[in-house]
TrEMBL record:
It comes from Pollutimonas harenae. One of its GO terms (molecular function) is ABC-type polyamine transporter activity. This is Spermidine/putrescine import ATP-binding protein PotA. The complex is composed of two ATP-binding proteins (PotA), two transmembrane proteins (PotB and PotC) and a solute-binding protein (PotD). It is an enzyme of class 7 (translocase). InterPro entries: AAA+_ATPase (IPR003593), ABC_SmlMolc_Importer (IPR050093), ABC_transporter-like_ATP-bd (IPR003439), ABC_transporter-like_CS (IPR017871), Mo/tungstate-bd_C_term_dom (IPR008995), P-loop_NTPase (IPR027417), PotA-like (IPR005893), Transp-assoc_OB_typ2 (IPR013611). Its EC number is 7.6.2.11.
Length: 373
C-alpha cells in the first residue's frame, strides 16, 4: 500500500486525560498516523473519542503524554496556531453570513488579500458543487448542502490535518452516503490527513485507511478495515465490529499454536484459528461470523459442524437471518443470501451447521487490552 512508504505525520504517545483528577477517561493512548491517511476512531459511547479530538485541536489540555505533528510537539501551541480544520455534526456555520462569507471567514482571519479570497471562495464553491449558492444564507440550504459548506470552510485554508466528529450524524441515510462519497472524493483530491469519529461502522469500514477501535480509553486494535473485520485482535473487537457468534468453549490443546482444538460447552469438538489464546488459558470464546456459517444441505465437506435446532428466520431483503439453538441452549445466527437455495424450516426442526476452521477464531476470555498491559 502506498501509505506504507510515507512518514509518520501525527503521533500520540502515551496520552492520558482526566477531567476530575481522579478517573482517567483516556488511559494510555498511542497512535501513529501517516501523512494523507484517513483514520477513524471507533468505539462505544463514552470511550474517549471526542476527548482525543479535543486534545488534538487544543480545546482540552493533555494530562500527560505527548502529541506531535511533523515531529514537533503541539501540546503547548494555541488552538488557532495548530492549522487544523474541523467539521462537527451541527455544521457550526455563521447564520448571519452568506455561504460565500462563511467560506471567506477562515481566510480573512488569516489576513489573505481580498482578491485571493474571492478566487479561493469561488474555487471551493465549485469543489462542493454549490457555485450558484454563494449569496444564500445557511438557513436557506438543505442539511446536506449546509454540511458541504461546513466541509469546504474547514478545508479552504488548506489545513494539513482535518478533524471530523460525527460530521454526518444529523443526515438521513441517503444523504449520509452521498456525503461519505463527497468527503472521500475531496480527501483523495486534496490529500489532507483526516481523524474521523463516527458511531457508524459501515461508514468507518468504507471510508478509512485505518481504524482505531477504542474501549475505555485504550486502543484495542489499529488496522485497515479488512484486517479488523477478518482478523480481530481480541474478543472485544470481534464482538464490536460487525456481527459475530461468540460461544464459550474449553481449550483442549494448541493454545500456544496457530490452530486450536476446543470443545463447545454443548460438547461438540472443533478447530479454530488462535485469536490470542496463550498456554495459560483453559477456556476461550469461539467466534464465527453469521455469514461464514453454512446450513448443510449436501455432502460437501467442512472442517467443523454442529447440530442445531431452528427457532425462526428474519427476512432482511437481500439476505435472510436464521436463528438456531444449540443443545446447551445457546443461540447461534446464520446469514445467507436470499436466493433460491435459502432453506425453509419448521420451528424446532433439527439441522446441521458447518464452517471452515479458517473462518473461526478462539479468543482468550481475559484478552481485551486494558491499562494493566
Ligand atoms: N468536559 C468534560 N468534563 C468532564 N467529563 C467529561 C467532559 N467531556 C467528556 N467527559 C467524560 O469523559 C468520558 C469520555 O467522553 P468522550 O465524549 O470523549 O467519549 P466519546 O467516546 O466521544 O463518546 P460519544 O461516542 O458518546 O460521543 C465520558 O465519561 C464523559 O462523560
Amino acid at each position: 500500500m502506498e501509505q506504507e512508504d510515507k512518514e509518520e505525520f501525527l503521533r500520540f504517545a502515551n496520552v492520558k486525560k482526566t477531567y476530575d483528577q481522579k478517573a482517567l477517561v483516556v488511559k494510555d493512548f498511542s497512535l501513529d498516523v501517516k501523512q494523507g491517511e484517513f483514520v477513524t476512531l471507533l468505539g462505544p459511547s463514552g470511550s474517549g473519542k471526542t476527548t482525543v479530538l479535543m486534545m488534538l485541536a487544543g480545546f482540552e489540555n493533555v494530562t500527560s503524554g505527548s502529541i506531535t505533528v511533523a515531529g514537533k510537539p503541539i501540546t503547548n501551541t494555541a488552538p488557532y496556531k495548530r492549522n487544523i480544520g474541523m467539521v462537527f455534526q451541527n455544521y457550526a456555520l455563521f447564520p448571519h453570513l452568506t455561504v460565500a462569507q462563511n467560506l471567506a471567514y477562515p481566510l480573512t482571519v488569516r489576513k489573505m488579500p481580498k482578491s485571493q479570497i474571492k478566487e479561493k471562495v469561488a474555487q471551493y464553491l465549485k469543489l462542493i458543487e454549490l457555485s450558484q449558492f454563494g449569496d444564500r444564507h445557511p438557513g436557506q440550504l438543505s442539511g446536506g448542502q449546509r454540511q458541504r459548506v461546513a466541509l469546504a470552510r474547514a478545508l479552504i485554508f488548506e489545513p494539513t490535518l482535518v478533524l471530523m466528529d460525527e460530521p454526518l450524524g444529523a443526515l438521513d441515510k441517503k444523504l449520509r452516503e452521498q456525503m461519505q462519497f463527497e468527503i472521500t472524493r475531496l480527501h483523495q483530491k486534496l490529500g489532507f490527513t483526516v481523524i474521523y469519529v463516527t458511531h457508524d461502522q459501515v461508514e468507518a469500514l468504507t471510508m478509512s485507511s485505518r481504524i482505531a477501535v477504542f474501549n475505555e480509553g485504550v486502543v484495542q486494535q489499529y488496522a485497515p478495515p479488512d484486517d479488523l473485520y477478518e482478523r480481530p485482535a481480541n474478543a472485544f473487537v470481534a464482538n464490536f465490529i460487525g456481527e459475530n457468534n461468540l460461544i464459550s468453549a474449553q481449550l483442549s490443546k494448541g493454545a500456544g499454536t496457530d490452530t486450536i482444538d476446543a470443545s463447545l460447552d454443548c460438547g461438540t469438538p472443533l478447530q479454530a484459528r488462535n485469536g490470542n489464546c496463550s498456554t495459560s488459558d483453559t477456556q476461550c470464546i469461539i467466534s464465527v461470523r453469521p455469514e461464514k456459517l453454512v446450513i448443510k444441505t449436501d455432502n460437501q465437506p467442512y472442517d467443523n459442524q454442529i447440530a442445531a435446532k431452528f427457532i425462526t428466520r428474519h427476512y432482511v431483503g437481500d439476505f435472510i437471518r436464521y436463528y438456531f439453538q444449540l443443545s446447551d441452549g445457546s443461540n447461534i445466527t446464520v446469514k445467507t443470501l436470499n436466493d433460491t437455495k435459502a432453506p425453509d424450516f419448521t420451528e424446532g426442526q433439527e439441522t446441521v451447521l458447518a464452517w471452515m476452521t479458517n473462518d473461526c477464531f478462539a479468543f482468550s476470555t481475559h484478552s481485551s487490552r486494558d491499562q494493566g498491559e
